[in-house]
């Protein structure tokens, strides 16, 4: 059962930079049948020296570079791992530079020169330094590189990156040429001193240069090699921007590239046969083989796949958002958040703004990825107070599941409207004293009222009225909230005949907005005096006075025509009524006269007429066009009562005649 080494083991050849380095195996033991798994860990020894890419490095540094400037140096590589790998750097003694050793995310070390004392080209034109790389072995192994620094006249402005760290993510197995990130730097200099060339920093590992390519003109970082999530999950790439000046300025930035796992590995099934062939009399439950399933992918890509059986769930069913009017366009006002317990694309949520009670395309917009609702334009409380809309949250499953969330946006009022005077009209150009008060009017008499409105709401629309200026301040007062103008004291004969009041109208908003109204009041015994005074006032030229005249004339003519028409209709109706009344009286007097002009015709009872049937016909006098009005059966009682209705030749007039018979008529009669 001894495990032996067959050949010399080179850990760096087997595992490279991976640590720990291990080899796995399985052992089957029979009688009894058992399966054991084993792992051999290959431990590292310090058998490799650190190595620099070159034996010399050359830097050009301007004398105008301020203290604190940093200059990355080429990194040494050591294939050993752990404490045997590269651990630190040392710099030869000098009065100008110090060494700062940094650690990458993967634990590797790199060095930067830090300028502690500014350079002076007139004092020293060049410097020679030695950089030593040391590993952690015992004894430590080392490597050296000569650093030659030329001090030259400076380019006044070095390039500057718009950000010091860029972050990007790219899926593994992404094809070559795919854009990963675009870095950007600017240089305030003109001409060649302002032209920027992008490149990898000197301490960028060779593996990174094999996987990524950088466009020196545009700063576009693209995929060059084959990325594998299972090998490396994160790349830390250092880039620099250098101008084309005689002494080029240099700026540095860092790009963190995250490799996203894709499901590019199929599950692997391993079958270990432990009992073959199987005899026909093998007992039930006998172990025949051992099976194991592995998947090199990570997270969800390495599990049993998800089913899209959960709809997105929002933290709230509805949102109420309050936004002040006159807002800045483009501001975010709400973040709609939701979760989906599914995995992968089934849990990827997208947000869509559904149309509400009006078209919102020019007012609101929502970020499809994170649910941030933006207000695209400035709102006005006086235009619309509330907006209602629906936000649909949909996952990326097939078929997709969605949830709707209602959003109400309320526009709060700001005091952005001053009070507006309706009466007296603020655009009056002539002095017309429409408000008159008689001499001797007692105190407390309401003379007129200032009417105003404010388009704002709430406290912003409350208006207060104060007397700002008056011909006689002691004569009139104004209601604080009503705008009604009262006499403050009784009018005297020596009071001025004409008064001008200036009323200040203020709202209760913050800040307070105000306006003024001018009211003219005349003191006169009667309106005639005021009209006499008005005739002395030369009217200002008003192009609308002819229009007003014609409008008044038209109203008078229409009113006169209507009055004449109604009077004619009344006279005609009265005439018809009197005529009908005379005919009615005439008919009544004729009905009860003795026979003569009135013809009374009785039906003759014959063999063809039932003995119980009686006919009466009434005809009016002086007319041969009267109609048969009524024929009606009645009982054979000798004292039967008869009732009939007649209609004469005059339309619209009806009356009833009730007659009685004391006996039945004989055939002779």
UniProtKB/TrEMBL annotation:
It comes from the Eukaryota. Gene3D superfamilies: Cadherins. InterPro entries: Cadherin-like_dom, Cadherin-like_sf, Cadherin_C, Cadherin_CS, Cadherin_N, Protocadherin/Cadherin-CA. The keyword Transmembrane applies. This is PCDGK protein. It is a single-pass type I membrane protein. The chain crosses the membrane at residues 549-572. GO terms for cellular component: plasma membrane. The keyword Glycoprotein applies. Its main location: membrane.
């Amino acid at each position: 059962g001894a495990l032996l080494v067959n050949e010399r083991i080179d850990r760096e050849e087997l595992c490279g930079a991976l640590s720990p380095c291990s080899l796995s195996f399985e052992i089957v033991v029979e009688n009894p049948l058992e399966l054991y798994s084993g792992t051999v860990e290959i431990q590292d020894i310090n058998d490799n020296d650190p190595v620099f890419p070159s034996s010399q490095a050359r830097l050009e540094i301007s004398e105008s570079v301020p203290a604190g400037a940093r200059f990355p140096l080429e990194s040494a590589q050591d294939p050993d791992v752990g404490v045997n790998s590269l651990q630190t750097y040392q710099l030869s003694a000098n009065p100008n530079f110090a060494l700062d050793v940094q650690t990458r995310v993967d634990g590797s070390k790199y060095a930067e020169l830090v300028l502690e004392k500014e350079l002076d080209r007139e004092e020293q034109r060049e410097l020679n330094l030695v950089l030593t790389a040391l590993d952690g072995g015992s004894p430590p192994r080392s490597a050296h590189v000569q650093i030659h620094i030329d001090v030259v006249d400076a380019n006044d402005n070095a390039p500057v990156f718009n950000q010091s760290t860029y972050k990007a993510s790219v899926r593994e197995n992404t094809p070559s040429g795919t854009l990963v990130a675009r870095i950007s730097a600017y240089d305030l200099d003109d001409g060649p001193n302002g032209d920027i060339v992008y490149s990898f920093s000197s301490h960028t590992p060779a593996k990174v240069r094999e996987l990524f390519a950088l466009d020196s003109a545009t700063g576009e970082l693209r995929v060059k090699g084959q990325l594998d999530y299972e090998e490396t999950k994160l790349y830390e790439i250092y880039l620099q921007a250098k101008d084309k000046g005689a002494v080029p300025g240099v700026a540095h930035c860092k790009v963190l590239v995250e490799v996203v796992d894709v499901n590019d590995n199929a599950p692997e099934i391993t079958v270990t046969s432990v009992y073959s062939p199987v005899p026909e009399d093998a007992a039930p439950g006998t172990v025949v083989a051992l099976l194991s399933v592995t998947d090199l992918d990570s997270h969800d890509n390495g599990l049993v796949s998800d089913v899209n059986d959960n709809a997105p769930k929002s933290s709230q069913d509805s949102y109420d958002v309050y936004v002040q009017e006159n807002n800045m366009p483009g501001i975010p006002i709400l973040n709609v958040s939701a979760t989906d317990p599914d995995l992968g694309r089934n849990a990827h949520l997208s947000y869509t703004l559904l149309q509400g009670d009006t078209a919102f395309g020019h007012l609101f917009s929502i970020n499809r990825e994170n649910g941030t609702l933006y207000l695209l334009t400035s709102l006005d409380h006086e235009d619309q107070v509330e907006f209602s809309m629906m936000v649909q949250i949909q996952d990326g499953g097939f078929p997709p599941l969605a949830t709707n969330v209602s959003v109400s946006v309320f526009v709060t009022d700001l005091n952005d409207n001053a009070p507006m005077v309706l009466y007296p009209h603020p655009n009056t150009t002539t002095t017309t004293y429409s408000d008159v008060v008689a001499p001797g009017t007692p105190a407390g008499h309401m003379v007129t009222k200032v009417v105003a409105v404010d388009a704002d709401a709430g406290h912003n629309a409350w208006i207060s009225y104060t007397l700002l200026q008056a011909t006689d301040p002691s004569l009139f007062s104004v209601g604080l909230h009503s705008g009604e103008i009262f006499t403050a004291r009784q009018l005297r004969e020596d009071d001025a005949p004409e008064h001008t009041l200036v009323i200040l109208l203020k709202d209760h908003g913050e800040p307070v907005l105000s306006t003024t109204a001018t009211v003219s009041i005349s003191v006169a015994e009667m309106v005639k005096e005021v009209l006499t005074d008005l005739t002395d006032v030369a009217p200002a030229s008003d192009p609308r006075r002819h229009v007003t005249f014609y409008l008044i004339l038209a109203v008078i003519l229409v009113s006169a025509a209507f009055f004449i028409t109604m009077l004619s209709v009344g006279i005609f109706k009265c005439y018809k009524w009197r005529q009908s009344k005379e005919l009615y009286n005439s008919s009544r007097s004729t009905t009860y006269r003795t026979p003569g002009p009135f013809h009374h015709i009785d039906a003759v009872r014959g063999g063809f007429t039932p003995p119980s049937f009686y006919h009466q016909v009434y005809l009016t006098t002086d007319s041969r066009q009267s109609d048969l009005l009524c024929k009606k059966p009645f009982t054979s009682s000798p004292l039967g009562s008869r009732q009939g209705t007649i209609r004469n030749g005059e339309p619209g007039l009806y009356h009833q005649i009730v007659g009685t018979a004391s006996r039945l008529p004989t055939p002779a009669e």
